[in-house]
Amino acid sequence: MAQKETDILNKYTAYLRLEKGLSENTTEAYLDDLNKLIRFIDGESDMNIFNLTYQDLQPFIAQLSDLGISARSRARIISGIKSFYRFLLIENYQDTDPTELLESPKIGQKLPEVLTENEINNLIHSIDLSKAEGQRNRAILEVLYSCGLRVSELTGLQYSNIYFDEQFIIVKGKGSKQRLVPISGKAIREIQNYLPDRHRINVQKGFEDILFLNRRGAGLTRVMIFHIIKEQAKIAGIRKNISPHTMRHSFATHLLEGGANLRAIQMMLGHESITTTEIYTHIDREFLRKEIIEHHPRNRNFDKENHCKESE
Q1: Which of these, 210, 115, 232, lies nearest to 153 by C-alpha position?
Q2: Of 15, 121, 276, 294, whose CB has the highest number of CB atoms within 10 Å?
Q3: 150 classed as catalytic
């Protein structure tokens, strides 16, 4: 590959990390998708990623299907390639986008697992507070559910960003973007109950302001949070396949059921696009159907009419 092309790819990498604010793992995934296309056209003397047409891309898309790659994975690869060509347009390296007409395969929407309010309560109250990490773990679950945090936002939550009196926390989300999130009185209480245990820990350098610590005084890892929730679900008798993200999904779903505005939920979750948040309208459809059946006047009248007929 010529030096100019290498320079463009390096700029694209910087664009993903700095301007798009993508994580290291997500950036690598985008670059890997692009490399799949580069390897496919390798050896074609008159073809490179900077002069491809829509027709040139068709054999590549067809090969993904022939190899048995799932629709969801194909959609992700196509999305990664589209991102690269949008970058070329933005930076004026090209004046046309060969991916403009590319269509992603239709995939069924995979709805996330959600816990009921009773299951949430059982999960939290099943924690044994006599154990050394008991109160910490209860505070972790309460904060996850109260604030709808991503697991990385929880592990990076700073003590100085908790405003106890105002009942708000500052969350550092994707791309280091900050947002203000309300926190429940219950979660505040559980954090305050945990603080005496935290103050007894010999905190390692660099973790002085991290709220949730392990027994060695360092921050908790994502894997540790997964482990805590999985183990606690077993103890609580919850058979659903849950993770830290389940608490986030449950938070959003329960807010919607309670009548919260979708835009407000979007802001609290830190979603850039309302489209991402709209998944919860699908999760909530059974609840909405039940509410309409029970409370809409036409349905109430229908039930009364039926009851009268049965009584005759």
Answers
A1: 210
A2: 15
A3: yes
